[in-house]
Write a structure and sequence with these properties.
The complex is a heterodimer of chains A (242) and B (574). Chain A has 242 residues and is mainly alpha-helical. In chain A, 56% of the residues lie in helices and 11% in strands. In chain A, a hairpin with a 5-residue loop joins strand 6 and strand 7. Chain A is globular. Chain B is built from 10 helices and 33 strands. In chain B, helix 5 crosses helix 9, helix 8 packs antiparallel against helix 9 and helix 9 packs antiparallel against helix 10. Chain B folds into 4 domains: 50 residues, no CATH class; 137 residues, no CATH class; 182 residues, no CATH class; 91 residues, Immunoglobulins (Immunoglobulin-like, Sandwich). Chain B is globular. Chain B has 574 residues and is α+β, with helices and mostly antiparallel strands. The chains are: A mainly alpha (242), B alpha+beta (574).
Chain lengths: 242, 574
């Protein structure tokens, strides 16, 4: 029995990949709330309720979900196969406890036509993420003087990293900003518009601002590529592949 | 309650009870009778509230039908008829001849929006809760009659309706309607002033402002000394008047604050005053300021930037130009100022949310992208905000914003007319002006008396409009920071005297002079009681009053020696 949120996607879920199906389950199960924590077991049940053949225990598809299948798609399976966590759609907050991210919400919005409730939710979440970037003092200083930041510690302040941060965390935090911005950009492209407007006519974010944020992100990455490579040796290779 | 000789007048008691805030609702809800010694009072009629005389031109209540559906705060439509099960509601707006907020005994308890469902009173909210900071809102009160509010929004005690989406939606509707009436009342209360008369009063104001400088306290004796002797406690004599500041007589050079080789970037369509930005100052050979001079402002290309009156200019078209300033009637000119006008393509504002304590100043960054893709954050723009009260915040063309009155507003920046080809930021900065826990420091500028409707506000560079609800000698929080006082011509008393300027100039001069004396007293009081830093101690009101009277007596005597001649003849200040 499925339990869709208001505004769930009007699209045939069966055409989605397994990861997309998991994202749909996570968004609808968590009712689009990025603050709501859920366990891997919750997700397994939500996903199974929506597609029993895909997420059911082999031989008992209609009776029991298969937690192992969910676990496999949550995490990475080799360098070329990123799980939903690596894609930034959900984030791990404790062992086996997760929550939805703005990127996940944006990706869900990009999967199909959703109604105004969900669009509003996606828009507002992305707005708050973009606002966090635009209001950051390092970004503001860069607007006023493009030669800033001059020291890695300032860029680190923006990304939330510092010497000693584990490489995986460095990668995750630096990528997270970019993924959020790209998610917002994809949403704009898909809608064929330059701005996302809330129900009452308030502009939540616009293309020019996201482009500016992306420019800032690329500037920082290029300016401090040596520092980033020191913290995360895979940075140079990953950056080149991106 | 104070009882004189153990007795209470029954009529007096009823009158006092009726006007009490907590009685108002009961009298509206219930039929109450007063009985004294077995005798029905008020000829056996139920007690009722005194009628409120309406505001002129709004004699009849304004009745609005409440639409069947109204959007709540999230934009969702709420049925005001419970999907057709209840009758349509209505909103009745009443007006008051008097300011309901300031008549705190009789009218303030009734300055409310009352909610009824059928014959039942559900409660009320203060008008200021629904439309805070809307000029003119003090003259409006309202009743909402909406059956659909019962039973879901009826709270125990019926003091106010329960919160919820329908009340939210109705409140939005009520607020919009109150705002419309309040704005009309506020416009009615504004006065049309004779321009020539205003010019003459401005000249007189400048003379008086100059004159008052002779009586200001000597700041060098007070600031930073931290001593109580002579300056505090209300016991010592007032500080001696300082010797008049050294002024030059013959100008030699014209100095401006704009740095060498700096280019002023301005968005096309921006209208602004240059004097507060460039601050031209004429100096004599000894480097002393030469006052009372008029400057001529010229632009090398009026298609780029055009001066329409004095220092007020409009950025007409994209390109480069130079501005120069000259002292009228002389060949003395300032160095040229380079100006570049940009075609604004996009404005990005940051931060998007700003909490601003009262009296504090912060900068909003507006990054402008022009039609060639160049970007800069130092482009001069026009700024505006959407609060009903224009004085919530004060913003200068560089985006420096001062919190002036508590409230919330959305600020945007841009250039040109947004209805034609002007470009403004699409995402505003939401500014919330909050209580300031720190002491607001007075400005370091020289105290100045300015005239509403004529002089530009130092905080914004724009002409400050008067306000009929403010005193004749007016100082807002932002003015305290800038050390300016305003002669508020919209104040009823000030306007009365101003109106008679032509027939009885001495009447106006007397009023004007009195306000100048008051201003000087305030400067002295401020000096005594706010600039002692850590030595400042709370004092009894009697001490403050004694100090105020002492200053008044001493200043008034010396100031009025000269002012008497001025009031009678209009001369004698030089």
């Amino acid at each position: 029995m499925s339990n869709p949120v208001r505004g769930s996607i009007e699209m045939d879920v069966k055409t989605f990949s397994l990861k997309e199906k998991m994202l749909v389950a996570a968004v609808e199960g968590a009712k689009g709330d990025c603050d709501m924590a859920f366990t891997m077991e919750d997700l397994a049940v939500w996903a199974w309720e929506r597609d029993k053949s895909a997420w059911g225990l082999r031989g008992y598809e209609d009776e029991h979900p298969d937690l192992d299948k969910v676990r496999k798609d949550m995490g990475a399976r080799g360098a070329d196969s990123k799980g939903v966590v690596q894609m930034g759609w959900v984030e791990r907050i404790q062992p086996r406890v997760y929550r939805l991210t703005a990127i996940g919400l944006a990706a869900y919005g990009n999967l199909g036509d959703s109604n105004s409730d969900l669009q509003e939710k996606v828009g507002r979440k992305l707005e708050s993420e973009i606002q966090r970037i635009i209001e950051h003092p390092v970004f503001r200083n860069w607007l006023m003087d493009n030669s800033k930041p001059r020291h890695f510690r300032e860029a680190g302040h923006f990304w939330g990293i510092a010497p000693g941060t584990p490489a995986a965390t460095v990668r995750e935090r630096v990528d997270r900003i970019e993924r959020t911005l790209r998610g917002a950009m994809t949403l704009l492209d898909r809608k064929g518009t330059d701005k996302i407007v809330a129900i009452r006519g308030r502009t939540l974010f616009e293309r020019t601002d996201i482009e500016r944020c992306l420019e800032f992100q690329y500037t920082l990455k290029s300016r401090f590529s040596r520092d980033l490579t020191l913290l995360d040796p895979s940075f140079a290779a990953n950056d080149a592949s991106n | 309650m104070n009882v004189y000789k153990g007795k209470l007048e029954v009529e007096d008691l009823i009158h006092k009870l009726l006007r009490h805030e907590q009685s108002t609702l009961a009298v509206q809800q219930l039929r109450l009778y007063a009985i004294h010694n077995g005798r029905l009072l008020k000829q056996g009629n139920p007690l009722e509230l005194d009628p409120i005389p309406p505001h002129p031109e709004f004699e009849q209540p304004i009745v609005h039908e409440i639409p069947e559906e109204l959007p709540d705060n999230n934009g969702r439509l709420q049925s005001t008829r419970l999907d057709g099960a209840r009758p349509r509601g209505r909103l009745i707006l009443h007006t008051s001849r008097d300011n309901m907020e300031t008549k705190y005994k009789e009218l303030k308890p009734r300055w409310k929006v009352s909610y009824r469902a059928g014959n039942n009173m559900i409660g009320s909210k203060k008008v200021s809760e629904l439309v805070p900071n809307t000029p003119g809102n003090q003259y409006v009160y309202a009743t909402v009659e909406l059956s659909a509010l019962e039973p879901d929004y009826v709270a125990l005690g019926r003091a106010r309706p329960d919160d919820g989406p329908l009340v939210e939606a109705v409140d939005r509707f009520v607020a919009d309607r109150i705002r419309e009436v309040a704005k009309r009342i506020n416009e009615l209360r504004r006065h049309v002033m004779d321009e020539q008369q205003l010019d003459e009063v401005q000249q007189e104001n400048r003379k008086l402002d100059d004159f008052k400088n002779r009586f200001l306290p000597d700041t060098s004796n007070v600031v930073g000394e931290g001593s109580n002797e002579g300056n505090g406690g209300g016991n010592g004599p007032p500080p001696p008047p300082p010797s008049p500041p050294p002024h030059g007589e013959i100008p030699q050079v014209l100095e401006i604050t704009s740095p060498d080789n700096a280019v002023l970037r301005i968005g096309r369509g921006v209208e602004l005053r240059f004097a507060p930005l460039i601050r031209p100052r004429a100096l004599d050979s000894a480097g002393r300021t030469v006052p009372k001079l008029t400057f001529d402002w010229t632009s090398s290309d009026r298609h780029v930037i055009e001066f329409t009156s004095a220092d007020f200019a409009i950025a007409r078209g994209k390109g480069h130009a130079t501005i120069s300033i000259a002292i009228e009637g002389t060949n003395i000119r300032s160095r040229d100022i380079q100006v570049e006008v940009w075609n604004v393509d996009h404005v990005l504002l940051t931060p998007r949310n700003l909490e601003l304590p009262l009296g504090k100043r912060k900068q909003l960054v507006a990054e402008v992208t022009n039609d060639e893709g160049s970007r800069a954050t130092n482009v001069l723009l026009n700024w505006k905000h959407d609060a009903d009260d224009p004085l919530i915040v004060r913003i200068d063309p560089f985006g420096w914003i001062t919190g002036n009155r508590k409230g919330r507003t959305n600020v945007i920046a841009g250039a040109g007319d947004p209805k034609s080809d002007g470009v403004w930021a699409r995402i505003p900065t939401e500014v919330m002006v909050v209580e300031n826990r720190d002491e607001i420091q007075p400005g370091s500028r020289f105290p100045q008396l300015l005239l509403t409707g004529r002089d530009p506000d130092p905080e914004t560079g724009e002409i400050r409009e008067g306000d009929p609800e403010q005193p004749a000698l007016w100082q807002e929080v932002s003015d305290f920071r800038s050390n300016v006082w305003w002669m508020n011509l919209e104040n009823p008393a000030a306007f009365f005297h101003f109106k008679h300027f032509n027939e009885h100039p001495e009447l106006w001069r007397s009023f004007h002079a009195q306000k100048v004396v008051e201003m000087v007293q305030q400067v002295h009081m401020q000096m005594e009681y706010t600039q002692r830093d850590t030595d400042e101690r709370p004092d009894y009101w009697a001490s403050y009053k004694a100090a105020m009277e002492r200053i008044e007596v001493q200043l008034a005597q010396t100031m009025w020696e000269k002012l008497t001649i001025y009031v009678q003849s209009g001369t004698g200040l030089d």
